[in-house]
C-alpha cells in the first residue's frame, strides 16, 4: 500500500513538474516570438520612416535646386548674353560665348539632377505620364534598348505608392541596363477597384530574383524588396521562355 501511495505521489509530482516545465517552455517560446514580432514591427516602422524621410529630402533638395540654383544660373546666363551682345571685341565675345555655353551645361545638369531626385510630373500628372517621360529619356540615352509602358485602362495610384512604384521600376531598369543585356523592356500597368497590377517583362539574361537577393550584397535588390514591403505588395516572378517576368500586385485603398 505504501509503495502504491509513493508511486502515486511520484506520478503526481512528475506530472506537475512536466506541466510546469511545459508551461515554462511555452512562456519562453511565446515571449521569444512576441519579442521577435515587436522587433520586426520596429524594423518595418524604421524602414518606413527612413524611406519617407528619403522621399521628403529628395523633394526638398529638388525644389531647392529648381527654384534656387536654376534661377541663379538663368540670371547669370541672361547677364552673359547681354554682355555678349554689347561686346565688340571678338576675343572677349569668344570668352563670353564659352562662359554662356558652360552655364547652359550647368543649367542642364541641375535640371537633370532635380528630375532624378523627384520627377515633377509625378505629382502633377501621375505615375503613367512619369514612366513614359522616364522611358523616353532612357530610349534617348540608350538607343539600342526599347523601353515601353502600357496602361490599357485607367490606372491611378496616390502619390505616395506611385513614388515607391517609380523607384522600383527605376531600380529594375538600372539593373537591366547594367547587367541584363536586354534589347527591350515592357512595363504594363492595369488597375481595378481593389488592386493595381504592375508587370515588368524584359528579354535579357534570366535570373532568379530571390536567390540573387539573398546572395547579393548590393543595395539595388534590397531597395526593391524594401519598397515592396512598404507597399505591402504581392511580388511574383513568373516563368518565361525568354528573359524575365515580374508581377507586382498592390491593394488599392477603397
From TrEMBL:
<dbReference type="InterPro" id="IPR050482">
    <property type="entry name" value="Sensor_HK_TwoCompSys"/>
</dbReference>
<keyword id="KW-0812">Transmembrane</keyword>
<keyword id="KW-0547">Nucleotide-binding</keyword>
<keyword id="KW-0472">Membrane</keyword>
<dbReference type="GO" id="GO:0000155">
    <property type="term" value="F:phosphorelay sensor kinase activity"/>
</dbReference>
<keyword id="KW-0597">Phosphoprotein</keyword>
<feature type="transmembrane region" description="Helical">
    <location>
        <begin position="6"/>
        <end position="31"/>
    </location>
</feature>
<feature type="domain" description="Signal transduction histidine kinase subgroup 3 dimerisation and phosphoacceptor">
    <location>
        <begin position="57"/>
        <end position="120"/>
    </location>
</feature>
<keyword id="KW-0902">Two-component regulatory system</keyword>
<keyword id="KW-0808">Transferase</keyword>
<keyword id="KW-0418">Kinase</keyword>
<dbReference type="GO" id="GO:0005524">
    <property type="term" value="F:ATP binding"/>
</dbReference>
<dbReference type="InterPro" id="IPR011712">
    <property type="entry name" value="Sig_transdc_His_kin_sub3_dim/P"/>
</dbReference>
<dbReference type="GO" id="GO:0046983">
    <property type="term" value="F:protein dimerization activity"/>
</dbReference>
<keyword id="KW-1133">Transmembrane helix</keyword>
<dbReference type="Pfam" id="PF07730">
    <property type="entry name" value="HisKA_3"/>
</dbReference>
<keyword id="KW-0067">ATP-binding</keyword>
<dbReference type="InterPro" id="IPR036890">
    <property type="entry name" value="HATPase_C_sf"/>
</dbReference>
<dbReference type="GO" id="GO:0016020">
    <property type="term" value="C:membrane"/>
</dbReference>
<protein>
    <recommendedName>
        <fullName>histidine kinase</fullName>
        <ecNumber>2.7.13.3</ecNumber>
    </recommendedName>
</protein>
Amino acid at each position: 500500500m505504501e509503495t502504491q501511495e509513493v508511486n502515486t505521489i511520484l506520478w503526481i509530482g512528475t506530472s506537475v513538474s512536466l506541466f510546469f516545465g511545459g508551461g515554462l517552455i511555452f512562456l519562453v517560446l511565446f515571449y521569444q516570438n512576441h519579442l521577435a514580432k515587436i522587433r520586426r514591427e520596429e524594423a518595418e516602422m524604421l524602414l518606413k520612416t527612413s524611406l519617407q524621410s528619403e522621399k521628403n529630402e529628395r523633394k526638398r533638395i529638388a525644389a531647392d535646386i529648381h527654384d534656387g540654383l536654376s534661377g541663379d544660373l538663368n540670371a547669370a546666363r541672361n547677364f552673359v548674353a547681354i554682355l555678349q551682345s554689347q561686346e565688340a571685341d571678338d576675343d572677349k565675345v569668344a570668352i563670353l560665348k564659352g562662359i554662356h555655353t558652360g552655364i547652359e551645361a550647368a543649367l542642364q545638369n541641375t535640371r537633370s539632377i532635380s528630375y532624378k531626385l523627384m520627377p515633377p510630373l509625378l505629382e502633377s500628372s501621375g505615375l503613367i505620364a512619369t514612366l513614359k517621360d522616364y522611358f523616353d529619356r532612357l530610349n534617348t540615352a540608350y538607343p539600342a534598348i526599347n523601353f515601353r509602358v502600357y496602361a490599357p485602362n485607367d490606372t491611378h495610384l496616390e502619390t505616395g505608392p506611385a513614388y515607391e512604384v517609380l523607384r522600383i521600376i527605376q531600380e529594375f531598369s538600372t539593373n537591366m541596363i547594367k547587367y541584363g543585356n536586354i534589347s527591350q523592356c515592357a512595363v504594363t500597368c492595369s488597375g481595378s477597384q481593389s488592386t493595381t497590377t504592375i508587370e515588368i517583362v524584359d528579354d535579357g539574361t534570366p535570373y532568379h530574383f530571390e536567390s540573387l537577393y539573398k546572395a547579393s550584397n548590393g543595395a539595388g535588390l534590397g531597395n526593391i524588396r524594401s519598397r515592396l514591403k512598404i507597399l505591402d505588395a504581392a511580388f511574383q516572378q513568373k516563368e518565361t521562355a525568354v528573359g524575365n517576368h515580374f508581377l507586382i500586385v498592390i491593394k488599392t485603398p477603397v
